[in-house]
Specification:
Structural class: alpha+beta
Order of helices and strands: HEHEEHEEEHEEEHEEHEEHHEHEHEEE
Distance between the termini: 45 Å
CATH topology of the largest domain: Pseudouridine synthase
Number of helices: 10
Strand content: 25-35%
Radius of gyration: 23 Å
């Protein structure tokens, strides 16, 4: 039997230390729960309200949900902008109001379904820079209102098509003649359910997304991810040890090591002229700013009256 004293002790242990810097934890989201549900559980498991994710996965979707904990939430905007990869199921012969198989069926196709070669040809036409109209059943906001909330009230509004990039789109067979697998590498803002629906339109038979798993987000993959059950079973200290340092998000950028004087200026948000540091990066270059304790800010090369300088654009350690 579990006593109240045990619960109190656990609660005390599940509180982050005062010097907690946070980090990134990759979650393998199960089907059926929302991304917000995952955030709530991570708040409890890590003992902090400072938790956010970097891209909503619908309840039917599984796979990689990258969660920022503690001060790492400041980096959310940068990981949200990263490219993503998915594996999705596409079912031919139906259309639904949600563009996936959880929605109400609108039409059924009674003719002969397209073959693999035809589907691959349609997929080729949806590779590269394309215009995509966001679905009504999405978390996208228009005039401060989520499209999904409007859709649930039976309201449909005009949505402006947006340019997204599909870097690669591969199609493979399953043991069903109406079901195929899509493997997608794409830019942020790409809706896989809409990709499925657009393939169905091009083929003339209709289609809906039948499954979705996110496999990659920026530098992180689903192989890096833990299940919520795995985290639940770990001691609190072990969970903290799993947090990936936030500077891994920016590992593609060069590191600039600053001496004490220039580090103090950068901590205060001041620009540091490149000529003072004896470096010469092009305008717009992003850099990891480091002091004697390591990475503390993301910087960008900007133009000023006296030349080009590295300006801190996001502080992660004060």
């Amino acid at each position: 039997m579990r006593h109240d004293s045990d619960r109190v002790g656990n609660a005390k242990r599940n509180v982050c230390p005062d010097n907690f810097e946070g980090g990134v934890i990759c979650i393998n989201k199960p089907e059926g729960c929302t991304s917000h549900d995952v955030v709530g559980k991570i708040r409890r498991l890590f003992g902090t309200r400072q938790v956010g994710h970097t891209g909503t996965l619908d309840p039917m979707a599984t796979g990689l949900l990258t969660v920022m904990v503690g001060r790492a939430v400041k980096a959310s905007e940068y990981l949200t902008a990263e490219n993503k990869s998915y594996v999705a199921g596409i079912r031919l012969g139906i259309t639904t109001d949600t563009e996936d198989t959880t929605g109400e069926i609108i039409t059924r196709f009674s003719g002969e379904l397209p073959r693999l070669s035809q589907i691959r040809e349609a997929a080729k036409q949806l590779t590269g820079d394309i215009l995509q109209t966001p679905p009504m059943y999405s978390a996208l906001k228009v005039d401060g209102k989520k499209l999904v909330d409007l859709a649930r009230r039976g309201v449909e509004i005009e949505r402006e098509a947006r340019q997204v990039t599909v870097f690669s789109l591969e199609v493979s067979e399953t043991d069903r003649e109406d079901e195929f697998i899509l493997t997608v590498d794409c830019s942020k803002g790409t809706y896989i359910r809409t990709l499925c629906a657009d393939i169905g339109k091009m083929l003339g038979c209709g289609a809906a997304m039948s499954a979705l798993m996110r496999t990659k987000n920026g530098v992180f993959t689903v192989k890096d991810a833990y299940t919520l059950e795995q985290l639940e079973e770990m001691p609190f200290g072990d969970r903290l040890g799993l947090l990936c340092p936030v500077d891994r998000l920016f590992i593609q950028y060069d590191a600039v090591n600053l001496g004490d004087f220039y580090a103090r200026l950068a901590h205060c948000g001041c620009e540091i002229y490149q000529k003072k540091l004896r470096v010469s990066y092009p305008l717009g270059t992003r850099l990891r700013l480091c002091d004697k304790n390591g990475f503390f800010a993301l910087g960008e090369v900007m133009s000023f009256d006296d030349g080009t300088a590295i300006k801190p654009i996001k502080q992660f350690k004060i």
